[in-house]
Amino acid sequence: MLIGACVVFLLADAEVFHDRAARLVDLPIVAGLAVLAAQLVPVPASVLQQLTPHTAAVQDAYALVPLQEWRPLTVHPAATRTALSLALAAALVFWASRTAFSLGGRRRTLLLLAWVGCMGAVVSMAQRLTAPGTLLWVRRLADPRAMPFGPFVDRNQLATWLLLVAVPVTGVLLMDVVDEAAPSPRSWRSRVRSISRGSSPGLVVCIVFMLGTLAATLSRSGFAGLTVAVATLLVVGRASARQSLRVALGTGALLVALARSEEHTSELQSRLHLVCRLLL
User: What is the DSSP string of 29-46?
Assistant: First the structure.
């Protein structure tokens, strides 16, 4: 997979850190890859003992042959190498795709992605409501504690997938609403009219279903990712201080409410599922 991603990256003649907007996105990606790679760098056993006292014992339990005097920081070096290769492949494909879409075809691809995400959200919610212990009504997992959500074993996985789809689709909708070429800011009436034309109503429907299903997962990691996405939008879009404060307060209140609802997760899920039944 990594070799294929490298070939795609080279064929696309992709660029990294080529402008300000790209740097804001590429810097966290490179930083994350650097953190993964740093965990594989061997350090003396004395340094490892000071940083993580129990890592050596866990490493010996995983390894067939005890490691040498110099050990990496990661508990499971093989798993970390696999994770690093997958993350690097994903980053290379992302950079290649960004370069390819800069030449055209972005809107058509994202419209298709929007409807795929919408159908995935609807099917996942229907499966959760009708057969909560199965994977798409077909397979029942051996672990009785597992709670599949749609085609995913864990609700956090579905939340991540929905977030990855909803964010670029929302960007397409914002491109329809916000006209940077306008000499003055557009009124809310003109923005509503722009949403009601073309493919924008369909995008709104897709975003509502995807975010609704994301909310039904009650995934704190999903909501944390949504917070990062909103913050990135504010930075890249150069929002005003008042707009940033409003969004920050709203997102913070949502996260606090989600954290406080941990003790009442089953009750909250039942209420969300009831609302989704009425919608479906």
Answer: HHHHHHHHHHTTS-EEHH
Q: What share of the chain is helix, strand, coil (3-state, %, to 5)?
A: 70, 5, 25
pLDDT tens digits, residue range 16-27? 888 888 888 889
Cβ atoms of 150 and 136 closer than 8 Å: yes
pLDDT digit string, tens, across residues 55-71: 777 777 776 666 677 87
> Coil, helix or strand for 131?
coil
* HSE-CB of 16 using CA atoms within 13 angstroms: 13
**DSSP class per residue in 42-62:** -EEHHHHHHH-TTHHHHHHHH
**What is this structure's pTM?**
0.65
- Of the CA atoms within 13 Å of residue 268, those in its CB half-sphere come to 14
Q: How far apart are CA 240 and CA 63, in angstroms?
A: 53
Contact 35, 80 (CB under 8 A): no
Average pLDDT over residues 32-51: 85
| Continuous segment of H or E residues that includes residue 106 | helix 106-130
97: which 2 tokens? 């795709």
- The DSSP secondary-structure symbol of 66 reads -
CA triple 84-213-236, angle to 5 deg: 60
Q: How remote is the C-alpha of 102 from its chain's centroid? A: 22
Residues 6+ apart with CB under 8 A from 211: 162, 166
